[in-house]
Design a protein that fits this description.
47% of the residues lie in helices and 11% in strands.
Length: 471
């Protein structure tokens, strides 16, 4: 087919023009058929892509979560806004935060009442006093303070325990014994009395209790490996190997297990409210178990850690047996097996919140509702931090319960969301633990989160590499 300009087309005869018009009409029909075929093909491709879009979205979410876990910040502060509280909403980001600077009431140097005070008197040499004819003014000094540092110091103490002999008169007094009906007298053996020495954890030990405690605190609280402690001690004149330091920590552990931990267990068993959690410690010994599990339980006054080789329900029952009252934990199913008529299983609200935060990228509107409602719960708890139990219980019924009901209704409305997506997982997780999440409403002593036990677990978590080699 040839395309004609306007001038050329006017020169065509009627027969030639009809012929060209027929060709153009056939070409248009062919193009319409091609376009229809392409539209059908695009429709089929769109249907196939639509069936796979949720899978692609789920894969993208998993990839984002993995990147966040590997490279993201562990803090729960949101969007890098450091000045906002932990539980903040989108609206709160637009608010102007002002601070009322406290008026300074104290001036000058900071008092140090906890520091030990040592008085040092500086005097002129006697020769200079005589040479200049100076007269000493009793009780008159120029006084100043100096904060100084005394490096770690070790000393070898020679303990001499004085021995005493029983006086001769007492020693020679006969001891009357009765053999059948005959009385006989026997002279007493010489008696030696020795003055008691310093208390030791084990008889014959060369190292003091304070020494062993310092080694244990330096390793497990301040994360100083035993080999590093050994090198530091050599710089201060004490030549001791890391194996000896290990023996000292082992001795302290033996004493704690036999004399201190039983009292902790009694305290926890008698407590009305406990918080439980667990974390892993790598096992470097040869065997089937790749990890140890450090189980922990906290009462109001103490916390107890215990190491086990697994994370099963049997271990949970062994470690937390005889508990009564309320046990607050995360959603780990092993804790659920402990619930009975004497023990109520409660769940904290931090873990559902974290799951809704993970769903913000895919379902921001739905996630925002849950995050903001949970934030309101924590704001109420912050207000009730110092309130007595009765007042806390009453306020929770009036203010917290309507929020809890709203969260539950919204979860039911959205529970049919594709369960593989983060929002579906968050809703399923919340509904699964709903009974435990509402325990705090009727039990004023139950907090809204289990952050207290997680903070106490920070030391062993930070020291995982440092603790390697302990079995």
């Amino acid at each position: 087919m040839v395309f004609y300009s306007k001038e050329t087309a006017l020169k065509l005869s009627l027969e030639e023009a009809q012929k060209e018009l027929l060709l153009y009409s056939n070409l248009c029909k062919m193009q319409v058929q091609v376009i229809a075929a392409q539209e059908n093909q695009l429709k089929k491709l769109a249907e196939e892509l639509g069936s796979k879009s949720q899978t692609v979205l789920f894969a993208q979410v998993q990839l984002d979560q993995l990147k966040s876990k590997l490279f993201g910040k562990s803090s729960e502060r949101r969007d890098g806004i450091d000045d906002l509280p932990l539980f903040d909403s989108q609206e709160s980001k637009t608010k102007t935060i002002t601070y009322d600077r406290k008026k300074r009431t104290q001036f000058g140097r900071t008092a140090q009442p906890e520091l030990p005070k040592v008085e040092i008197i500086f005097e002129l040499p006697e020769s200079e006093v005589k040479e200049k004819g100076l007269e000493k003014i009793d009780g008159q000094f120029e006084v100043s303070e100096l904060v100084n540092i005394v490096p770690g110091r070790f000393q070898l103490e020679i303990h001499k325990r004085q021995k005493y002999r029983v006086p001769a008169e007492a020693n020679q007094a006969p001891l009357m014994t009765k053999t059948d009906t005959i009385l006989t007298s026997e002279p007493r053996e010489a008696t030696i009395v020795t003055a008691p020495g310093e208390l030791k954890l084990k008889e014959g030990s060369r190292y003091s209790i304070d020494f062993g405690v310092e080694i244990g605190l330096s390793k497990f609280k301040y994360h100083l490996p035993l080999d590093r402690q050994s090198r530091m001690m050599k710089e201060f004149g004490l030549n001791v190997g890391s194996q000896v330091l290990y023996a000292q920590t082992d001795t302290i552990a033996w004493y704690l297990r036999n004399h201190v931990i039983p009292k902790f267990v009694e305290e926890i068993h008698s407590s009305r409210m406990n918080i439980g959690d667990e974390t892993y410690i790598e096992n470097l010994a040869k065997g089937d178990t790749k990890r140890f599990w450090l189980w922990s339980v906290k009462s109001q006054r103490c916390v107890l850690f215990e190491m086990y080789d697994s994370r099963t329900k049997a271990v949970a029952k062994e470690f937390l047996k005889d508990l009564q009252g309320v046990l607050l934990t995360d959603g780990f199913a092993a804790y659920q097996s402990l619930a009975n008529e004497r023990l109520i299983w409660a769940n904290d609200w931090c873990h559902p919140r974290r799951k809704f935060l993970a769903a913000e990228k895919t379902h921001p509107v739905e996630s925002k509702f849950f995050v903001e409602q949970i934030k309101l719960l924590f704001e109420i708890e912050e207000k009730l931090r110092e309130s007595p139990p009765l007042e806390r219980h009453s306020c929770r019924q009036i203010e917290s319960r309507p929020i809890i009901d709203a969260i539950y209704v919204r979860c039911l409305e959205l529970k049919n969301v594709l369960p593989q997506l983060p929002i579906g997982k968050a809703i399923a997780y919340t509904l699964k633990l709903w009974k435990g999440l509402t325990v705090f409403l009727d039990n004023p002593e139950v907090p809204l989160d289990s952050n207290a036990i997680e903070r106490l677990q920070r030391a062993p978590v930070l020291g995982r590499n440092n603790y390697r080699g302990f079995k």
